[in-house]
Amino acid sequence: MAAVAPRRAGDSPKSLQSAIIIPSRTFQIAMDQPDFEQMRRKLAELKSEHRDLDDVIAQLSESPPFDQLQLQRLKKRKLSLKDQILKLEDALLPDIIA
Domain tally for the chain? Predict the structure, then answer.
């Protein structure tokens, strides 16, 4: 997190940009490592729940008298999980500029 020096009356935007203080990169990297591990654990949990929901939806739709509303809710939850999974995977994988 960057700290900004206090603004004075005659400061221009350019002089404010040079006043930003950036903490050391090694400290920031050390702080990010537990976050990545936590994100990986959350990703594994979401993928497991997504697979489980897939199985439940398949079993529910195989039996002829099934609750359509319940099936829709399960599918909606599965889509929500997929969105969360994609966001976490995007955050974990670095952007590669080709």
Answer: 1
Predicted model pTM = 0.61
Residue 26 belongs to some domain of the structure: no
Q: Which helix (H) or strand (E) holds 17?
A: helix 13-18
Give residue-wise pLDDT tens across range 26-64. 434 444 566 889 999 999 999 999 999 999 999 998 887
Three-state SS at 21: strand
86 belongs to a structural domain:
yes
Looking at the chain, the number of H-run helices and the number of E-run strands are: 3, 2
Which range of residues forms the domain containing residue 89? 39-93
Neighbouring C-alpha atoms within 13 Å toward the C-beta of 27:
5
57 domain residue, yes or no? yes
Helix, coil or strand: residue 3:
strand
Residue 64: CB atoms within 10 Å: 5
In a domain, 45, yes or no: yes
